Amino acid sequence: xQQFIKETALSIGFDACGIARAEALTEDAVFLxxxxxxxMHGEMSYLVRNFEKRTDPRELVPGCKSVxxxxxxxxxxxxxxxxxxxxxxxxxxxxxxxxxxxxLLAKLETAIVDKYGSECINSNVQHSFVDSAPVLERRxxxxxxxxxxxxxxxLISPEMGSWFFIGVLMLNVETExxxxxxxxxxxxxxxxxxxxxxxxxxxLLNATRCISYQTIELKTPVAEDIRPLLSGFALGCDICVEVxxxxxxKAVPYTHSHLKxxxxxxxxxxxxxxxxxxxxxAQIFKHSAVKRAGFxxxxxxxxFLNEKKSETS
Length: 313
Ligand code: B12
Ligand code: SF4
Ligand code: SF4
Description:
14 helices
């Protein structure tokens, strides 16, 4: 069954797949508790909710026995012009990655049910996830042998680096499980040294200082002390991932067709972004992950970059 699930996941279009036994994440619960207590989640109040479900998949999906984790490469084959406000690579695609991964996970589920029966799935509750549920996805990917959690807190695959999304499918059957790989960060601290806002300590992110949080999740304007540190990013941030030697050595642009980039990413120069209006935004980013930040927030973020440019020019 393990073999079948992995082969099917790859044939459907995922780049990697691993499986771990569903169990309580007791160490993670301690870590998460102190992270939340320290207020490092900022205004992401959804991270406080569903603590039991987040730290035990059997609370989320009753009867769950196995956690299947899949990876989808999002290292894009295109780039932005140098003077454009930077958009983090995860958001380049025309179709939001949540939509893409959910539809691929549905295919995987159908294949498993066709072969092994409907008792594999708890169809009374949601059982496939990407991003927006109380699931510690990086930890499940790590337990499923797909990589280790780097000092920048992202999952790194020894074969692919870390430009990939994670998706999860919970099964109510036992199968064979994968063996975790060891941490290979060694004495490297490049991500920590490169982070412009000093948001990182080894294996610990203060999300309130992260450019990704400030430019997307925070509903109020980017904090004044962070604005001069945005480093060209108007939405998200890729710096700690870009400098990681595992990406420099291992990451290759995807060749699959699931995440075709929206054409403005490679076409639009700075002035095109500056003159973008609400109607254009709604049309161009209709199905894209960029929508999460919203037009007003994105324009405001772009304004902060221009502010810095005009001050220094
Ligand atoms: C909230 C969130 C954010 C927040 C907070 C990030 C963070 N590090 O937690 C913000 C908005 C800042 C963010 C930014 C980004 N994110 Co984000 N984010 C999430 C989300 C929705 C939840 C993460 C979460 O639970 N955080 C809470 C913290 C405490 O958990 P944690 O760091 O994972 O640590 C847990 C375990 O790893 C473990 N652990 C970690 N260290 C240690 C050490 C010890 C000793 C122990 C015992 C346990 C332990 O315990 C912790 C608590 O249980 C996940 C999707 C999901 N549902 O998992 C995506 C996710 C993590 N994000 C993702 C991405 C791509 C990004 C960005 C690259 C996007 C961008 N370019 O802007 C950046 C990267 C920033 C960074 N350096 O991490 C991907 C990561 C893919 C990968 N390769 O790992 C995910 C998995 C989404 C997805 N489905 O693909 N993100
Ligand atoms: S995403 Fe950017 S701001 Fe956030 S931890 Fe990484 S380098 Fe720092
Ligand atoms: S940059 Fe270095 S320390 Fe940071 S995640 Fe990559 S290998 Fe680990």
